[in-house]
Amino acid sequence: MDAIFLQILNGLDKGSAYALIALGLTLIFGTLGVVNFAHGALFMIGAFCAVTLSRLLSLSFTTIDETRTDFLGNPMKVETPYAEWLFGPEFGAAIIDWTVPLSILFAIPVMLVVGLVMERGLIKHFYKRPHADQILVTFGLAIVLQEVIKYFYGANPIPTPAPELFRGSFDFGALLGFEANAVIYPIWRAVYFIFSLTVIAAVFGFLQFTTFGMVVRAGMADRETVGLLGIDIDKRFTIMFGIAAAVAGLAGVMYTPINPPNYHMGMDFLVLSFVVVVVGGMGSLPGAVLAGFLLGILESFASTAWAINLVPGINQIIIYLVAIVVLLTRPRGLMGRKGVMEE
Amino acid sequence: MTDQTQHTAAGPATTRARRKSQGVLGLRGRDITLMGIVLFLTLAAPFILNPFPATSGMAQFNAGYPDLMQRFVIFGIFAIGFNILFGLTGYLSFGHAAFLGVGSYSAVWMFKLLGYNIVPGLVLSVIVAGLFSLVIGYISLRRSGIYFSILTLAFAQMSFALAYSVLTPITNGETGLQVYTSDPQYLQSADAPSIPHLFGLEMRATETLRLGGWSFDLNFGYYVCAVVMVLAFYLAIRIFRSPFGMMLRAVKSNQQRMNYTGLNSRPYTLAAFVISGMYAGLAGGLMASMDPLAGAERMQWTASGEVVLMTILGGAGTLIGPVLGAGLIKYFENIFSKINDGVLHQWFAFMPDGIEDLLVGIVHPFVGKGWHLTLGLLFMLVVIFLPGGLVEGGQRIASVFRRDRKAGGAEARAAAKRNVE
Amino acid sequence: MGILEVKNVNKRFGGLQALGDVNLSVAENTCHAIIGPNGAGKSTLLNCLIGKLIPDTGSVMFDGQSVLGRKPHEINQMGISRVFQTPEIFGDLTVFENVMIPCFAKRDGAFRMHAIESVAAETDIVDQAESMLAEVNMLEKRDIVASSLSRGDKRRLEMAMCLSQTPKLLLLDEPTAGMARADTNNTIELLKQIKARRDITMCIIEHDMHVVFSLADRITVLAQGTPLVEDTPDKIKGHPKVREAYLGEAEV
Q1: What are the residue ranges in chain B where pLDDT is below 70?
Q2: TM segments (chain A) (predicted)?
Q3: What are A280-321's pLDDT values in tens digits?
């Protein structure tokens, strides 16, 4: 029982990332009808927002502390981050420690701008082109974005730690009445899961309860009619592209402590996220979220020794296998509408 | 493909005249010229690609060394095959590298079991890749559009993951498959070379020709690949001009009309898929024949993405485009990537120092290790502005010149067209 | 016994009865028109005939064989060709290629792997396609890419494609929809010529009464998914039930 529970928990953090990226992909596909192969790159840019902020915050100046000497007997040089100088030593140190969560505030405007520029500058011209062209041009864009990041940040993964408070693990099982130490779970992964639920809830709430969201939903169902009502649906869809980019970016920001970001992390996640979208059903937001968590958990179960003994290599292929079965037996996915993209 | 649009108003008389000229080897008109150009370029490549004297500063831009030339033609074959599927039917596969990888594994297994003669290896690589693509194509072609792309992607990623893990007994996992002295090699005779060869002639045998400051490498392996590519290209022309090729274009144009015209589009697309899979297998087999190694990374989806880039960059649906695209990308990867700041400073040395540094700074991100960035940008520009690839670009430039010459004729034709509409 | 026999065909979409007990018999070498107000089920009926839809109950027999459960290309190979409401042609191919494809389909069946011989070497197909284009007066446009044709020419091309298969039955779905008067008249002329020159059965769905009365030998009036009357054009014109149900609202 607790073993099963542990596997479910283990699947949640990857599942959360899948769900967030797939949610953004689906938002873009559902509103603009564009298949965005650069969405993984947005996830990656989000992660590098955190890296950037952490570099900015750790910029320091050097002072010479006459009262202390180093091992050569010279006066000691002390590096003081500007953040500590600005905000005082304690608060400054706390800010540096909390870089990753703080990056959320930094990433939202950055990602919105990136998304808007991308949509207005490039994607806009591809609405009427075939899906193959959309895939190709966004694929090209993904290459460009990842090379730009590589140029500035190098090819190696950059460790970006979580705040002190959230490092290490906690005994999750004990909280739920399992035996002590049966279900140990890293704290940050729990944070990531809760965070992603919050973002998902925020996106759904936004679509459900605001007028803006209502118009967008109406536009997703029938773009032309909404257009005929005199509503500038294109503008709203553009904003949704920005929001989708922000969602992917936030997923990337918070993922950095789990996996040190590198320039090709976007491509690694992209393929799987597309599979998630297809399994969930092209254009279905709840489908994307459900499939994201489901596949994350499934992947975690397939990685157990038991599953690998049963079917060798299953952990490597489970997601693709599910995708193939779903596509062949139920092409509209778990929750998709019939006829979307079936051409 | 544009030649179809150009001669308007050709009556039955011209058809009959055209029909009489049977052409060379079943090719007609422009195709003969095209075939001739490809034949000339591949045979003369060791000379054409080494335009700079070996001692000059520009020698690093010479691409005429055997290793790279082999890659040019091998990826040319891969792209020609991919184009038969994507260019003609419009089905975008993101999993073709799997067939290339399977071809490589098959060839290396033949080296291990039978011996280093490349013929059995090549034959098996084509057969195995054909069977493999038959299975994957049969399943994937049940869906079209993006679903087809995702299915092929999923299959290829699965093959890649399995080759790395479970299939280690066949693929030798991360190390990659290679030939060991303990392998049986049942048909390997004592006097045959213990590296890949064609009936005794070693693939790596190279004759270096020195003429003045120039030096040209005539490599036997390259010429084997070149001959195979010329044959592959010839076959592609025949397929493009055949009723089968026309049907494939019909699939891309309007599948519904095709079905209501009594044609079953499924076997046509499947046949195209298998043919392109066999081309990929052949490329993989040749790759292993040049260097008897096969690794799983050849199957990864980014490798499939590469052949997509090649085909589209050169011009999907055109005959010569994919070959050009393959050459361009491989040139970028191997030559362009070697331009470092030192070279840039040399180039801009004639400028005042400040401007020199500025220019080097501007160009720097796009060359050397940044070649992928240039490639990505180039690819985007092509998709946005030149859906027909570099070939379309060339044709546009050519038509600008032609318009000057034939301005009168073009006007008359335009007028005729207006009357029609 | 007609060449096409539709018996007791029913088709429901959810709660909507699109076709209710449709019986229809089309005699060989006649032109049979199906008319009816919007939503009468004309297009649904046509889609049942070509395999796009499968009726819930009933039978559709063509030339003594059932068409139900067969794929579109199989039904076409039995001898049924269809002209669509918006012309369905191969837009990226030339006019000549558009006509050659059905010729190949007629000669070689649903699939043939003829990948080596050049198209131009297939002299019988080339001749066939040329004479077909000559018949519809499009020979001079043979090398134009089909998508750049005018709408009238696209329609003409689509008919040429269907006719080049020498089908036993030609289904026409509103062949003049959205056409200017002159184009409509041209289409009528074309269809009349075809009828006169060939042994062909036609089944036409049409809104334009001018077209219907110029061409049809028999007319079935469909209303709310059920045939109301079937008779000759003259009788239909005067039929009180038809006037009441349909003609009152249309131009005659």
Answers
A1: 1-23, 404-421
A2: 15-35, 42-64, 91-114, 191-216, 236-257, 269-298, 304-328
A3: 888 888 999 999 999 999 988 888 888 888 887 788 888 888
Mutate to test the interface with B, among C83, C95, C101 (most CBs of B within 10 A): C101
Task: Tell me the C-alpha to C-alpha distance, in Å, between residue B116 and each of A15, B180, B201.
Answer: 48, 12, 11
**What is the widest separation between alpha-carbon atoms in chain B?**
77
| CA distances to A170, B101, B106, C236 from B299, in Å | 41, 5, 14, 69
Domain boundaries, chain A: 2-49+100-329
B242–C126 CB contact, under 8 Å: no
Cβ contact A142:A42 at 8 Å: no
| Cα separation, B343 vs B339, whole angstroms | 6
CATH code for the structural domain at C85-166? 3.40.50.300
- State how far the Cα of A68 lies from the Cα of A65, in Å rounded to an integer: 6
CATH of domain A2-49+100-329: 1.10.3470
Pick the CATH number of C1-79+168-252 from 3.40.50.2000, 3.40.50.300, 3.30.390.30, 3.30.565.10: 3.40.50.300
ipTM of the complex: 0.89
Taking only the tens place, the pLDDT of each residue in A113-139 is 999 999 998 988 888 888 888 888 998
| Contact predicate A122/A140, CB 8 Å | no
How do strand B214-219 and strand B293-294 relate by DSSP bridges?
unpaired
Question: What is the C-alpha separation between B5 and C96, in angstroms, rounded?
Answer: 11
Nearest to C228 by CA among C240, C216, C217, C242: C242
- pLDDT tens string C71-117: 889 999 999 999 988 889 999 999 999 999 999 999 999 999 988 88
- With an 8 Å Cβ cutoff, is B135 touching chain A? no
Q: What's residue C251's pLDDT?
A: 44
CA–CA distances in Å: residue B10 to residues B15, C138, C141, C164, C206: 7, 12, 8, 21, 36
Q: Which fold has domain B38-338?
A: ABC transporter involved in vitamin B12 uptake, BtuC (1.10.3470)
A134 in Cβ contact with A36 (< 8 Å): yes
Strand duo C31-35 + B201-202: pairing? unpaired
Report the C-alpha dihedral over residues A18, A24, A29, A30, rounded to 10 degrees: 110
Chain C residue closest in CA terms to B251 = C90
Q: Return d(Cα B100, Cα A249) in angstroms, integer.
A: 35
3-state secondary structure of A61: strand
**Interchain contact B257–A (C-beta under 8 A):** no
